[in-house]
């Protein structure tokens, strides 16, 4: 039996979020899964999310919201595509069929609809449906968190912030998981450059729940965007014991820590974190967040002149099996870095050609629609850069610099592409590009003053004599 602290049928009804099942066990397991998702933490006493997925099926196989949360979590993880994964596609279909054969609430129907839209890659419409749920049910945390993730994958920074702002007044401190909304909101604030307010809100969340790894992560972002390197490093270290228990996010928080070391030019320390934490987690979990973080760290270190050749080969063993997924462009760009780093040209070609093929008839898949104008040129720019064709890398990437946000992720994560553009411009044989490189460094310095990394780029730019 599951802990009594989780909500049963009656408790969900009392909150105006009734669930269509007569099984108290299924209701509690739904709550347990939602809790682990929000905390970024597998609770081993419950068998983690995997264990709960099996248990909820056993408790009530026809429980629509049980199927929605199980399948939705798998989809939002972006680690497999229903286009290729027959089991995942069947889970989506089964949920839709269950919903059509039962008398469920309008709210639950909308949940099913949103999950199905997301499974087809129609992220904007899925988010619209989750927002529809939140208009009538502002305390539906599953709708809020799914929308938050959907916006993140689209780089929709303002909607991600406002989505939480709209529901916050309806939440009261006594409600389960209330404090975690602070972390969500802080993240939306910092992605829209409200750094002071974001820090204040994140710290409010941490005062209530010190082990909220997402709120810690928000503060790490703020320090990164302000180039407050020492403050960020100190903060991560002082709270390490709190956040390292969140197994789904710990590796990403270590990634932020490593970025601080790269910023300071302490490459050995960054590599140590890569080996001991980020890549170790990546191999164990196979999660997409850990995988893109691993690619991003190695690419950044390589741009700084650090040799990471053998590590690329190991990482490629993880990314290779995702070559045909094409769930998000952000993932694709990072898989591409790994195949280029490992010098696996056949896989590089296959990834690019697969994306080009899907872009021809994208249907309502938002990521495939975006591939033609943004995703593919960005992929080609990375390939150009890797092959030493810096001129073409600049020509492809520079016109897209204000559209790169659309590939999703955070400002901190997308910074790898900004750095790539600067390095390409400074290495280009085109005189105009080298001048452009200097301009881009000056611009970077204005946005985040006192960044040691920017200072190093400035030195490089000044050494170019034209």
TrEMBL record:
Where does the signal peptide begin and end?
none
Read off the Gene3D superfamilies from this record: Tetratricopeptide repeat domain (1.25.40.10)
Q: Which CDD domains match?
A: StaR_like
Keywords for this protein: Repeat, TPR repeat
Per the record, the similarity remark reads: Belongs to the TTC38 family.
* Protein name, UniProt field: Tetratricopeptide repeat protein 38
What is the native source organism of this protein? Salarias fasciatus
Q: Which gene encodes it?
A: ttc38
């Amino acid at each position: 039996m599951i802990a009594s602290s989780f909500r049963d049928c009656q408790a969900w009804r009392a909150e105006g979020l009734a669930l269509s099942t007569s099984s108290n066990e299924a209701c509690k397991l739904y709550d347990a899964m939602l809790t682990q998702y929000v905390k970024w933490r597998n609770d081993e006493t419950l068998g983690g999310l995997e264990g709960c997925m099996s248990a909820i099926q056993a408790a009530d196989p026809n429980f629509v919201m049980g199927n929605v949360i199980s399948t939705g979590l798998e989809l939002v993880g972006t680690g497999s595509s229903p286009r290729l994964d027959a089991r995942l596609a069947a889970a989506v279909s089964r949920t839709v069929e269950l919903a059509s054969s039962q008398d469920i609430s309008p709210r639950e129907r909308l949940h099913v609809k949103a999950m199905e839209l997301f499974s087809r890659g129609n992220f904007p419409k899925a988010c619209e449906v989750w927002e529809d749920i939140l208009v009538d049910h502002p305390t539906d945390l599953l709708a809020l968190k799914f929308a938050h993730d959907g916006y993140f994958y689209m780089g929709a920074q303002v909607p991600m912030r406002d989505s939480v702002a709209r529901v916050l007044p309806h939440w009261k401190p006594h409600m389960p998981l209330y404090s975690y909304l602070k972390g969500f909101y802080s993240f939306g604030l910092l992605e829209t450059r409200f750094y002071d307010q974001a820090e204040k809100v994140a710290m409010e969340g941490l005062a209530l729940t010190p082990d909220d790894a997402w709120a810690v992560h928000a503060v790490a972002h703020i320090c990164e965007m302000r180039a407050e390197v020492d403050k960020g490093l100190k903060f991560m270290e002082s709270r390490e014991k709190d956040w390292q228990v969140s197994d789904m996010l710990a590796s990403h928080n270590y990634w932020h820590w490593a970025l601080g070391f790269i910023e300071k030019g302490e490459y050995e320390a960054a590599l140590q974190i890569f080996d001991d934490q980020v890549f170790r987690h990546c191999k164990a979990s196979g999660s997409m967040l850990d995988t893109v973080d691993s690619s991003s760290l190695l690419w950044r270190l390589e741009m700084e002149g650090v040799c990471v050749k053998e590590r690329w080969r190991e990482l490629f063993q993880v990314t290779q099996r995702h070559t045909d997924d094409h769930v998000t462009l952000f993932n694709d760009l990072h898989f591409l870095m790994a195949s280029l780093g490992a010098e696996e040209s056949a896989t590089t070609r296959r990834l690019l050609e697969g994306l080009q093929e899907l872009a021809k008839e994208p249907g309502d898949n938002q990521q495939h629609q975006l591939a033609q104008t943004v995703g593919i040129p960005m992929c080609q720019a990375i390939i150009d850069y890797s092959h030493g064709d810096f001129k073409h890398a600049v020509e492809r990437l520079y016109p897209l610099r204000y559209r790169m946000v659309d590939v999703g992720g955070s400002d901190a994560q997308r910074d790898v592409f900004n750095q790539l553009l600067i390095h390409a411009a400074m290495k280009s044989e085109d005189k105009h590009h080298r001048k452009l490189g200097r301009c881009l460094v000056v611009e970077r310095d204005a946005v985040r003053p006192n960044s040691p990394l920017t200072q190093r780029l400035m030195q490089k730019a000044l050494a170019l004599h034209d």
